[in-house]
Amino acid sequence: MQAVIAEAAARGQAGLDLVSVDSTTARAHHHAAVMVLDGEWPGPAFRSDKTPDSLLAGLHLRGAISWIRSLQPD
């Protein structure tokens, strides 16, 4: 994704000066979108602390669990 953005910026098709989203927040949203598309998101729907770091940590944990389950034979 970063390579695509860099290529678009080099062609003058992306104005990176307007980007103000924290990279941790962006990664967390990206991972969440991938999990939703995979259908592998039966995680908790409630969160008492909704910081980007805690959300990203939960997504990494869920990704690790999904990966481990994929290694087990059917």
Write up this protein.
- The chain is mostly helical.
- The protein has one domain (20-71).
- The chain has three helices and no strands.
- Helix 2 (23-38) runs parallel beside helix 3 (52-71).
- The termini are far apart.
- The model has no long low-confidence stretch (mean pLDDT 68).
Topology (SSEs and partners):
Elements: H1 2-10, H2 23-38, H3 52-71
Helix pairs in contact: 2-3
List keywords for this structure.
mainly alpha; 3 helices
Task: Give a brief description.
This protein is an all-alpha fold and 74 residues long. It has helices at 2-10, 23-38, 52-71.
- Write down the secondary-structure element order: HHH
The biggest sheet, with number of strands, parallel, antiparallel or mixed sense and barrel status, is:
none
Give the low-pLDDT segments: none
Approximately how much helix is present in the residues? 55-70%
In round numbers, the mean pLDDT is 68
C-alpha-based Rg, rounded: 16 Å
Oligomer class:
single chain
Distance between the termini: 33 Å
Return the structural class: mainly alpha
Task: Give the DSSP E fraction (strand runs of 2 or more residues).
Answer: under 5%
